[in-house]
Amino acid sequence: MTTMQFNEKLLSLQDKLKYFALSLTANEEDANDLLQETTLKALTYRKQFVSNTNFKAWVFTIMKNTFINNYRRTQKTRSTFESVEDAYRVAFKGNYSSETPEMVQAVNEMNQSIEKLDDEFRIPFTMHTSGYKYKEIAEELDLPIGTVKSRIFFTRKKLQNMLEE
């Protein structure tokens, strides 16, 4: 397949790819980004396409895999807190001259929510946010490391639910 034929086939699929991207992302802007990224990858890896195979399936697979990879990357970077600043404030509770009343209120709500937790969840969580490693917490509290990790995980989930309300 020549470069011209490849480009024509790719351009002819743009509408169908856009529709597929919308079905994956449910967001117009994200769908456009996914379409652009897919088109770029198809053009970049054009030489890997084997002639006399299903071109449409090849391009749709690129889009599906790109979406999955982006989704996984997003899930890994997702945080319990709205921003890094919120997590930093909870962890280090320092003085901030640029704090707004809303920020102070949000930190106070988080701290109050943490204080409402049972000791078995609150203590490992506060130790973790204070900088202790899982292993150190496990040794200090005489617990298995898996228990410490699960308690910190469940504490984050509880806090998310408490703060959403």
TrEMBL record:
<dbReference type="InterPro" id="IPR039425">
    <property type="entry name" value="RNA_pol_sigma-70-like"/>
</dbReference>
<dbReference type="InterPro" id="IPR014284">
    <property type="entry name" value="RNA_pol_sigma-70_dom"/>
</dbReference>
<dbReference type="GO" id="GO:0003677">
    <property type="term" value="F:DNA binding"/>
</dbReference>
<dbReference type="InterPro" id="IPR013249">
    <property type="entry name" value="RNA_pol_sigma70_r4_t2"/>
</dbReference>
<dbReference type="GO" id="GO:0006352">
    <property type="term" value="P:DNA-templated transcription initiation"/>
</dbReference>
<keyword id="KW-0804">Transcription</keyword>
<protein>
    <submittedName>
        <fullName>RNA polymerase sigma factor</fullName>
    </submittedName>
</protein>
<keyword id="KW-0805">Transcription regulation</keyword>
<dbReference type="InterPro" id="IPR036388">
    <property type="entry name" value="WH-like_DNA-bd_sf"/>
</dbReference>
<dbReference type="InterPro" id="IPR013325">
    <property type="entry name" value="RNA_pol_sigma_r2"/>
</dbReference>
<comment type="similarity">
    <text>Belongs to the sigma-70 factor family. ECF subfamily.</text>
</comment>
<dbReference type="Pfam" id="PF04542">
    <property type="entry name" value="Sigma70_r2"/>
</dbReference>
<dbReference type="Pfam" id="PF08281">
    <property type="entry name" value="Sigma70_r4_2"/>
</dbReference>
<dbReference type="InterPro" id="IPR007627">
    <property type="entry name" value="RNA_pol_sigma70_r2"/>
</dbReference>
<dbReference type="GO" id="GO:0016987">
    <property type="term" value="F:sigma factor activity"/>
</dbReference>
<dbReference type="InterPro" id="IPR013324">
    <property type="entry name" value="RNA_pol_sigma_r3/r4-like"/>
</dbReference>
<feature type="domain" description="RNA polymerase sigma factor 70 region 4 type 2">
    <location>
        <begin position="112"/>
        <end position="159"/>
    </location>
</feature>
<keyword id="KW-0731">Sigma factor</keyword>
<feature type="domain" description="RNA polymerase sigma-70 region 2">
    <location>
        <begin position="13"/>
        <end position="76"/>
    </location>
</feature>
